[in-house]
Specification:
This protein has one domain (about 5-215): MetI-like (MetI-like fold). About 80% of the residues lie in helices and about 0% in strands. Helix 2 runs antiparallel to helix 7 (about 130-160) and helix 3 (about 50-65) crosses helix 5 (about 90-115). The protein is mainly α. The protein has helices at about 5-10, 15-45, 50-65, 70-80, 90-115, 120-125, 130-160, 175-185, 185-215.
Amino acid sequence: MFDLSRWQELFQNLNVFAEGFGVTVSVSILSLIFMLLISLVVGLLRCSENRAVRACLLAYINFFQNTPLVIQILFMYNVLPRAGVMLSPFTCGLLGLSLYTGAFGASIVEAAIKAVPKGQHEAAYSQGMNYTQTMFLIVLPQAVRIALPPLANQCVNMIKNSSVLALIAGGDLMYRADSWASDNLYYTQSFIFTGLLYLALCLPVSKWAERLEKKAAHI
């Protein structure tokens, strides 16, 4: 751990870690966008009056929340090609992270919508608004303030979970770190540095989530 020559060699190969860091950031940002879309759409539809739609979406939520992300990723990468569906490691990671985290995000959005007092709905209807207007103009703005802190925490989890791409040679930070460590047998230096890079990504988002929670508590 304290061998300076090993740390010097690591810093001479920073491009390896930088490439992996870029892949991790890219897949995390894209997954975040899709996760938010899935969370919003599924959360809204879970509050609809259509029982069939609610039941189907509940099945999606239960499946992705209660099966390991690793299995989902490996299924997409190893099983889907047997059915003729060929996906790159990056695409598998993107889909897996989006669907997995979106299932948790949908529950958060649904709970936030239902947390808005029913009186808000009734007041909007009394002013002549329909369901869509009530939801988007009255309910959702209030629900967003409730849902944002836990969604930010899900973002932190998603960044950390992106490391599963290493299992399918996804070229992410964890994969590059493990490959470099295996080639040079410098596991301690590689994993300490990688952990610090993940910390640099996750800590600011985590602190932002804490501030959102404190603000929400005073609303």
